[in-house]
Amino acid sequence: MFTDFFYTLRERKVPVSITEWMTLMEALSRGYISTLNDFYYLARAILVKSEAYFDHYDIAFQEYFKGIKAPAEISEQILAWLKDPFNRMLLTEEERALLDLMDLDELLEELEKRFREQTEQHDRGAYWIGRGGTSPFGHSGQHPAGFRLGGGGGGRSAIQIAEQRQFRNYRHDLTLDIRQIEVALKGLRQLKRIGPEDELDLDKTIDATAKNAGEIELKWRQSRHNKVKLLLLMDVGGSMDPFAHLCSLLFSAAHRSAHFKDFQYYYFHNCIYDYVYKDIERRDAVSTDHLLHTMEPDYKVILVGDAWMAPSELNNVYGAIYYYERNHKPGLARLKQIADHFSHCTWLNPESQNYWNEPTVFMVRKVFSMFELTIEGLQKAVKKLIVKR
Amino acid sequence: MVNDGFDKFKGSHDYVTSEALRNAVNVAIALRRPLLVRGEPGTGKTLLAHSIAKGLNKKLIVWNIKSTTKAQEGLYVYDVVQRLNDSRFGDKDISDIRQYIKLGKLGEAFASKEELVLLIDEIDKADLEFPNDLLNELDEMSFYIPETGESIVAAHRPIVVITSNAEKELPDAFLRRCIFHYIEFPNPPLMEEIVKVHFPDIQDSLLRQALTTFYSLRKIDDFRKKPSTSELIDWIRVLIASSTPDEVIPSEIPFAGTLLKKETDYAYFVNTYMKKIQTTKTIDGYETLR
What we know:
Largest sheet of chain A: 5 strands, parallel
Number of helices of chain B: 12
Helix content of chain A: 40-55%
Number of domains of chain A: 4
CATH topology of the largest domain in chain A: Rossmann fold
Shape of chain B: elongated
Structural class of chain A: alpha/beta
Oligomer: heterodimer
């Protein structure tokens, strides 16, 4: 049942697994739901495990179920219609007599049966539910004891709810928020045993005590602490100005993350040359060579920039955009130096991947693996950074 | 048509629920799976479990997860050091290990004679492997204590509610087994209901002004931490207690410290937002001068 829905969901990138699908089938087979609305919520609760995918679910739902009116909703309406005494008055004497002859439950049973049997719209027949015919179900027809079907009902249908797409903002490939960045950066946690010895090592204690003929001897070990060191290098000024807010979010998140052993950050403009800067105005300079000499290779490096510059700035000696920089090493050589020195580096680009067609971006991508500055991109970058070399 | 036992949870009188939430809870109960609830801080995830317990008239066991919590602690703890100590200094009979085995919250839930609700609060605070460590026990609803050789099997499957703040990504294998619900931030009508539950006698005008101001504050993207439901409740409590006149609320936003908890947010609020409001006010001030 609905197997195509499963595939539609997967096409829309909702990570559904077979086990979850079987759970849904189990729930359906137990008869828990009777309307499309219920199905919408049931399937969502069972299949979608993160609000980031709620929007994808809505899209898939619309795609698959558009234009369907759940029959069960209609039988409720029929009952309501029939119970209304005003409607009975609309029937003539004979119709009323006929209606009384037919048992209501029988009629409803017949209706359900027809729903199950009928697979397409039908007009002018005597048996199927349709329009302009003489069967007891449908509308614009001629049966005295039949009743009208079709038309909207009260309340929001599941399609309307899906169409609203109220979860658009929760998608991970759209918006960036400090908390989400922190969560992504927390993927960098790598715990090792370092620091002071403040945990009781039970096994060693028992060993030592036994060796000591029963005199208690306590042995300690280091508890686990984070040993990740992060170096953040950010491009500021010029073409990066529109992304200043985004970068400041990333910076704040990294700065606040208490779980880094060491966190250092520097700024540059367009490309890294002989100096990097401690402040955004780029007045407080630190020589790049000094950085490479003093920082150990196990720092994880994240470079943030749009890699958008004149090719000469990357390739030429003295190519730096500011004449007074007078760099003897071309920018690209410096970038290669950094990539060689540190074991794990990634480049985050705030521009969407559609704009990565620039020659300088290509050149930078040859040196660093580049990811978009979205939650997904950040997660991928973090995965790259923790992979064992 | 509909299974009789399905619609068990209808919310309780002191906790306002949405249809989706009620559905999710009933699905979790019917399918006997843990219910995973996520949402912004302050949206009532913990209260949900209390409400379920009240609504179904069952006992509630709360297991508050800390960053140092290990899965084993939830099952049972074998107090080795105490036993070691007693063997040296005490005069207790230490041969019965059962004295030193203490059941954790999960163990308590399994050992209970009746069905109950187990709340595992803020599961994402713990280590990354923590949820995976619990997988087997949550599936089978039983665990084995090697020290005493006994198995604790749940006579009645507890209803498990797990809350998460989205601090960490939970492992996939764990997510597969759960029913998921995301508690969105309440929209104004739902929020009105929630406030009325806490303050049944609140004046309409005060409520309206407070809500409009609250939602307009939430629209400001520059706030690092937007005010949440619990902060709104606190703020309204203060407004009522201080008998603030209604007209003052949107223009001056008194007691903003109850709503904005971050220093940068508060500074932004005072320097930028209030100035913006005041510049529009000066025109009125000029008018009144004449």
